[in-house]
Amino acid sequence: MTFDFCSEPGDVNVPTQIITPEQTHDFSIIFIHGLGQSNLTWKLVVQEAFAPALPSVKWILPQAPSDQPAAYYHGECRPSWFEISELPPTQDPNEDCQQIKNSVSAIEDLILGEVHAGMDPKRIFLVGFSQGAALALIVALSTLYELGGVVSLSGWIPHRARPLLMSTTMPILWCHGLSDDEIPYSYAQEAVAYLRSRLGISTRTLTFKEYEDLEHTIRTDELEDVVSWLSRVLG
Hints:
Distance between the termini: 41 Å
CATH superfamily: Alpha/Beta hydrolase fold, catalytic domain
Order of helices and strands: EEHEHEHEEHEH
Helix content: 25-40%
Number of helices: 5
Strand order of the largest sheet: 1-3-2-4-5-6-7
Number of domains: 1
Low-confidence stretches: 1-10
Mean pLDDT: 91
Shape: globular
CATH architecture: 3-Layer(aba) Sandwich
Strand content: 15-25%
């Protein structure tokens, strides 16, 4: 089963946290949190680890809806970009295509808002953790906008979304822990191999970094690699 991500702009709205740049607003980065998380938690990470090193960046942190029962949390309402029954994720028939479509539309709306405010799409980047990384990758590789780049932290690419993905020369950074048992390292390897073999994305375009003893979380050396990569790509 496949599905069409296309939707009218402005039909899905999500609350956001904004971190304004310390200097001139030259770039915008949308940071997408993971399953069951809050954008407020990641706001602190951005303020401490990213913003001081990237003073010309406006950070936009959307919050996933939390009004739908989440199967992974046994029916409790938790923030989720789309339905996941279990971790590691499988090709789950319960995977909610409409939720994925709505979440893609929500991120597209944020991109559109930046474009309407005068930002060149090539100066807009997506960063995501876990489920947020999956969403960031889907949007970045299916949008008609030519974005500046995308960063996946402990992410994967849902199989149902793959037929909609397109080849790109947009810079991609994929970071993954070797000890991750929620989104296993093998998932990252398989997804990166898919992007390279099926979509023809070159090793020059896609940078893959692995981290010894890193579980399903973030770590200082990983964040430093992200800052270094963004600094280089932003120029």
